[in-house]
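Handout, page 2. Input:
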Amino acid sequence: MPPMPPLPPLPPLPLPKKMCDGTSSSVVNLMNKYRALHGSPPLTWNTSLANSSNAWVQYLQNKCTLEHSGFVGENMFASMRSSCIGENATQIWYDEGQGYKNTLTPGTDNAHNYTDIHQFIQLTWSSTTQVGCATATYAPTCALNSWTVYVCRFYPTLFAG
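Output:
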């Protein structure tokens, strides 16, 4: 009996789909995962911050604009994809940290690129203990046609402690 030919290689396993459920707990869990990598305590959900974030995203949606409110401690993200927006925003904010210089004088050493890393800093700031977020999708008639905006407000802010 001749030997059996070798079996063909197995096809690669499909990559698992990104797990997210779009809930506040899902987003806060991801934020806390990243915060733990920097020794920062876990965040808790703050409904007042979520309500103020919601008021801001509703304003943005109604005015068909995308801008920060001026609230110190506000992170913002916009995307053409609305699924997993909270998790995607958190990932993008965390990825900003690649430009962060962890030195003995981080304020001075990061001053030149602060606008590129400030959302990472707020996300991982050890004094921050609370977060509240909201999302809204722009109308198709808006110049930001069907984009989704995601805003989180943190407290205390990175300038508070």
